[in-house]
Design goal:
By secondary structure, the protein is α/β, with parallel strands linked by helices. It has twelve helices and 16 strands. Helix 4 packs across helix 8. It is globular and about 65 Å long. It binds pyridoxal-5'-phosphate (PLP).
Length: about 400
């Protein structure tokens, strides 16, 4: 095989290409010493809200902050139950716990690896009851009110939001999208009869601008988008110590603001995001062609209602570990998202889950492999990855 190295991700080339524009942001920040908040943050917030077809955007310190603040602003309290999936990054559940609530999981769909709506429905119908007097949904086992759902748009593809929103309306639940991997992803809503952008579908949505995300800062950053003015206002307070005006505090909040310099960098990059996402979609299409017909290897599934932005390109195979080490030996670098489901992590032993509780997630965790995926991936690199995989499966 050839000697070509295929990295999992290339963050150096794009920054070299944007160096002048990024330096101009740096100079502007140094020239004004406006490091926190200010016009650069406001400008980015307006641009990103518009990118997401959402009314408001509040820049915060990270995607984790975004999730936590959105849940808090949505009124999620201590001893509330918030439902999400076990196949996600731990930030999703950290935010739930840190908002004071309790985590409960429903399993994922085998093909999309996102929330399985039938599992959500059966959770709501069989593990909860409606308290007629209070008009709220209550978990049968813990007697705690169930107040929110956090669907995760994993790998760059939205969860199936129509039925999730229908159930949420029926049971009066808040819906906070974890859109940390889905900047620009689209969902065709039958209810609305139109394509909707991730971040504009639920009551609020959390985005991460961690450097490796489809839109990444040059450091830590995140944002909440929402169409709800009062949610946006509360999140603005929470990110700034609960301040309504300087040194007047309506509540305790956090130090969770977005740096001006990161906002400036993000504005530069946001102009390129649609192009980058299109390149990712092209790469995915090309992988699909190159990897078709390999028995024992399943390509990612994109339902007709979804336009994924392929934050990750995740294939599945029963011989995952062997394939991954074979590719690594051949200088093709891959990732696992995620190797151990959250319900089986040491951090969540206290939740009392066991192996077998979420079988679809558990099987996926053993079979998934994230192939190299980034906008600048070349045809030669794509072919090289496919060649490596075909060689592993003893195919010509
Ligand atoms: C990256 C990520 C987060 C957290 O974002 P940070 O900016 O790293 O705090 C949350 N959820 C998911 C699904 C993510 O991929």
């Amino acid at each position: 095989m050839s000697e070509m190295k295929v990295p999992f991700l290339d963050l150096i080339t794009p920054h070299a290409e944007m160096a002048e524009e990024l330096l101009a942001v740096y100079k502007q920040a140094m020239g004004t010493a406006g490091f926190i908040g200010g016009p650069m943050v406001q400008k980015f917030e307006e641009e990103f809200a518009s990118f997401c077809d959402s009314k408001y955007c509040v820049g915060v310190g990270s995607g984790t902050d975004a999730l936590r603040f959105a849940l808090m602003a949505a009124g999620i309290k201590r001893r509330n139950v918030v439902i999400t999936v076990p196949n996600t990054f731990i930030a999703t559940t950290e935010a739930i716990s840190q908002a004071g609530a309790m985590i409960d999981f429903v399993d994922i769909d085998d093909r999309t690896c996102n929330m399985d709506v039938s599992k959500l429905r059966s959770y709501l119908e069989t593990k909860c009851f409606v308290d007629k007097d209070l008009g709220i949904l209550v978990n049968i086992k813990t007697l705690c009110p169930v107040t929110a759902i956090v669907p995760v748009h994993l790998y760059g593809q939205t969860a199936d939001m129509d039925p999730i929103l229908e159930l949420a309306e029926k049971y009066k639940l808040m819906v906070i999208e974890d859109a940390c991997q889905a900047h620009g992803a689209e969902y065709f809503s039958k209810r609305e009869n139109r394509w909707q952008k991730a971040g504009s579908i639920g009551h609020a949505a959390a985005f991460s601008f961690y450097p490796g995300k489809n839109l990444g800062a040059c450091g830590e950053a995140g944002a909440v988008t929402t169409n709800d003015e009062s949610l946006a206002r509360t999140i603005r307070m929470i990110r700034d110590h609960g301040q309504s005006q300087k040194y007047y505090y309506d509540m305790e909040g956090y130090n969770g603001r977005l740096d001006a310099i990161q906002a400036g960098f993000l504005s530069v990059k946001l102009r390129r995001l649609s192009g980058w996402n299109e390149q990712r979609r092209q790469n995915a299409k090309r992988y699909g062609e190159l990897l078709s017909g390999i028995e024992g290897l399943t390509a990612p599934f994109e339902p007709s209602w979804s336009k994924s932005v392929y934050h990750l390109y995740v294939v599945r195979t029963k011989t995952r570990d062997e394939l991954q080490s074979f590719l690594t030996k051949n200088n093709i670098f891959t990732g696992l998202h995620y190797p151990v489901p959250l319900h089986l992590q040491k951090a969540y032993l206290n939740l009392g889950y066991r192996q077998g509780d979420f079988p679809v997630t558990e099987t996926a965790a053993a079979e998934i492999l994230s192939l190299p995926m980034f906008p600048g991936l070349t045809e030669m690199q794509l072919e090289r990855v496919a060649e490596g995989i075909r060689e592993f499966f003893h195919l010509p």
